Every structure is written in structure tokens, then in C-alpha cells.
Amino acid sequence: MLYFALFFTVLLIQRLVELYIAKSNEMWMKKQGAKEYGQGHYKMMVAIHIAFFISLLIEGGVLHPGVNRYWPLLLCGFIFTQLGRIWVIASLGKYWNTKIIVLPKAEIVAKGPYKYLKHPNYLIVTLEFIFVPLLFNAYWTLFIFALLNQLILSIRIPLEEQALRNETDYKRIHPHTKGWMTSIKKEK
Predict the structure, then answer these.
(1) Which CATH class is domain 2-173?
(2) Average pLDDT of adjacent 10-residue blocks, the chain of 188 residues
(3) Backbone angles phi, psi at 47, to 5 degrees
(4) Which burial class, exposed, middle or buried, applies to 50 when counting CB atoms under 10 A from its CB (0-12, 13-18, 19+)?
(5) Do 56 and 124 form a contact (C-beta atoms < 8 A)?
(6) Beta-strand relationship, 100-102 and 35-37
(7) Chain Cα centroid distance, residue 183
(8) Which of 16, 34, 50, 90 could bridge 29 with an S-S bond, Cβ 3.0-4.6 Å?
(9) Is 107 strand, coil or helix?
(10) pLDDT tens figures, 82-115
(11) If we measure between CA atoms, which residue out of 86, 97, 90 comes closest to residue 23?
């Protein structure tokens, strides 16, 4: 239970710091004339993430205390995702956000992980929704929130792609950059 409490607290603090960064970036971008898209789905996405924490707390912290016997591998996977998250945030700088906020005519980021993948942050979140519940034997949390995450991303990614195409030279910068969700079709 001690490991879970420590891990959960660190994860929660990390998310709060990210929200602070996102809010700061949002204010800066909007002062520059940025536009926000996809407000309708954002509340659902936030609800999914909050429910994930509650479910993890109940299932992984109370109902199934202890760690998975493969915890060293799962912890390494989690740490790898966190390094990826830092790379994503550093690469996007002031443009990183939890919301879809686009600055018209802004130069599209095509460095760091964005050189290889269109939406690396979403891949990282997806992997976290696998590694974290597995680490604490929270299999229902894994199943439910892995599915809910893919559902919300199937809404979010097309909205983000359209906003970027409408407001920037995204299509020119990323004509061959791979997406990671094969169900999302590239525009011809």
C-alpha cells in the first residue's frame, strides 16, 4: 500500500503541474490570438481522466493492494513514457496544452517526437493507461479506461487535425508523418 500511495501521489502531483503549465501556455497563446477548438469533448476527456484516478485508487489501492509481479518491467515502461512526456512538452514549448488551442499561422513543430509521429502525447497517455493499472493489478481500470481513452481520442484527434489544417501549414509540414491510430484516415 505504501508503494501505491507514493506512486499515486507522484502521479497526481505530476498531473497538477501539467495543468499549471497548460493553463500558463493557454493564457500566452490566447494573448497571441490563438483559437480554441473542441471544447465540447474536453469536459468528457477531463471526466475520463478524473474517473481513471478514482478507479485506480479504489481498485489498485484498496481492492487489490500490492504490485504486479512484473513490476520492474512495468515501472520501466512507465518511466519510459514519462521521459517521452517530457520530450513532448519540451518540443512543443509554449504550444503544449491539454486543450486544442491553435495559433493561426504559427510555425508547426516538426522536431523531437513530432518529427516521427503526429500525436506522440496521445500514444504516451495510452501507454500510461496500460502500464499504471497493470502495475497495481487494476485490471478493470485497465480495460475500462483503455477503451474510454481510445473513444475520446477518436473524437479528439480528428478535431485537432482539422483545426491545425485550417489555421496553419500543418498539411505541408506533416504530409508523410505517421499517425498512430490506424482508424483515423489521412486526408487525400
Answers:
(1) mainly alpha
(2) 89 96 97 95 96 96 90 96 97 96 92 91 96 96 97 94 90 69 45
(3) -60, -40
(4) exposed
(5) no
(6) antiparallel
(7) 18
(8) 34
(9) coil
(10) 999 999 999 999 999 999 999 999 988 889 999 8
(11) 97
Q: What is the number of helices (H) and of strands (E) in the chain? A: 6, 2
**What pTM was estimated for this model as a whole?**
0.87
pLDDT reported for residue 179: 64
Reported residue count of the chain is: 188
Question: What CA–CA distance (Å, rounded) separates 156 from 51?
Answer: 18
Reference 118, options 77, 188, 170, 168; nearest CA is: 170
pLDDT at 25: 97
C-alpha cell at 139: 485490471
- Domain positions in the chain are 2-173
Q: Computed from CA positions of residues 70, 76, 82, 87, in that sequence, does the dihedral angle turn out positive or negative?
A: negative
Non-local CB neighbours of 172 within 8 Å, separated by 6+ positions: none
Q: Which long-range contacts (CB under 8 A, 24 or more apart) does 45-54 make?
A: 45/152, 45/156, 48/145, 48/148, 48/149, 48/152, 49/15, 51/145, 51/148, 52/129, 52/141, 52/145, 53/8, 53/11, 53/12, 53/15
For residue 116 the three cell numbers come to: 516521427
CA atoms within a 13 Å half-sphere pointing along the CA-CB vector of 78: 18
The reported pLDDT for the residue numbered 170 is 82
